[in-house]
Specification:
Layout lengths: L1 H11 E3 L16 E6 L4 E6 H12 L6 H18 L16 E2 L11 H8 L3 H14 L3 E5 L2 E2 L4 E2 L9 H5 L21 E7 H11 L14 E6 L5 E6 L2 E4 H8 L6 E6 L2 E7 L7 E2 H9 L4 H8 L4 E5 L8
Parallel strand pairs: 2-4, 7-14
Antiparallel strand pairs: 1-15, 2-3, 5-6, 5-15, 8-13, 9-10, 10-11, 12-13
């Protein structure tokens, strides 16, 4: 199957070196996506680059540096092409008759022009132009490995070091490994606290981990760290009588990341988090920091997805067969 995908994709693309920048000409892949709009509960057909515009605008602040915006545009495009059934992808997991959906918890966020008008208000014209320039500057560019689009993952802020995919999703990828991500301290919410009454925390933990036996009276001592990942995040904890994954614990309490510690504060328990998101792949805050230091999008993407190549879809070669 992978070989068939590769042969099909090679017919459709023009390979670039990982350091190459895009030309000034605009290329149209010809790919139309079947997109499930979660809010409207309907399917719409969107040209690839139109989709990339809405995904970029929804997934990254439009006032980020141009090179960071270009990184996100390429990431959004790569995810869409990798999932597209025209290319041979599996489509959206929750909506298998579609290529991708607008639910960020499933695929990628997306905002329509009307939603952007409402969100940006008087800044609409300026911010829309920034998004448009990033999409046009990277038109048709994808990240590939072994000739195929990569599995793109990204997050808001790593907390200073990204995570290995295998530590979060139990699926290793050579380009989704832990790397340093300096300069993120200026990100709003780089450090944050989440406070719960012990009764509230116990209730949430019992819902997530039935039978663990925690009670308000046993917190916080009923939570004990068992292991951390190579990046320093929580890998496993003992919650009462159960061993749970850090990622599952984070979900149970809606914490910002698995990069956390905790302490008692009277009759409350406080979690101190660093970063925001799962920590795998591109750190948007890290991309912003690298761009501010003068790195271009190719350098940033090579750092966060080591060993990948920038590949441009061919204007006339994408047949979808």
């Amino acid at each position: 199957m992978k070989q068939k995908q590769l042969l099909s994709f090679l017919v459709c693309i023009l390979m670039l070196s990982s350091c190459a920048a895009p030309t000034d000409s605009t290329l149209d892949s010809g790919l139309t996506l079947r997109v499930y709009f979660a809010d409207a509960e309907e399917i719409r057909l969107l040209p690839l680059e139109d989709y990339v515009f809405g995904a970029l605008a929804a997934e990254m602040p439009a006032n980020y540096a141009p090179e960071a915006l270009k990184c996100q545009a390429i990431a959004a495009r790569t995810r869409a092409v990798a999932q597209s059934r025209a290319f041979g992808g599996n489509g959206c997991v929750r909506h298998p008759d579609c290529d991708i959906c607008t639910d960020s918890a499933c695929c990628q966020a997306y905002q329509t022009d009307a939603q952007l008008h409402a969100r940006w208000g008087s800044e609409y014209v300026v911010l829309r132009a920034r998004i448009d320039r990033a999409v046009r500057a990277t038109d048709g560019l994808l990240l590939t490995s072994g000739g195929l689009p990569i599995e793109v993952l990204y997050h808001a802020c790593s907390g200073g070091k990204t995570e290995d995919a295998a530590a979060v999703f139990a699926s290793a990828k050579p380009y989704l490994v832990s790397v340093d991500s300096p300069g993120e301290e200026g990100y709003a919410g780089f450090r944050a606290d989440a406070s719960f009454s012990c009764e509230e925390a116990a209730d949430l933990l019992l819902r997530a981990f039935p039978g663990c036996g925690v009670t308000a009276d046993t917190l916080p001592s009923a939570i004990r760290l068992q292991s951390t990942t190579a990046s320093g995040r929580v890998a496993t904890l003992l919650v009462g009588s159960q061993t749970v994954r850090g990622a599952d614990f984070r979900k149970a309490l809606s914490l910002r990341s698995t990069y956390f510690t905790w302490e008692a504060d009277g009759d409350r328990i406080v979690f101190h988090t660093v970063g925001y998101g799962h920590g795998v792949g591109l750190s948007q805050a890290g991309a912003q920091a690298m761009a501010a230091d003068g790195a271009d999008f190719a350098e940033i993407l090579a750092h966060y997805y080591p060993g990948t190549q920038l590949t441009r879809m061919d204007k006339t070669g994408f047949s979808g067969s």
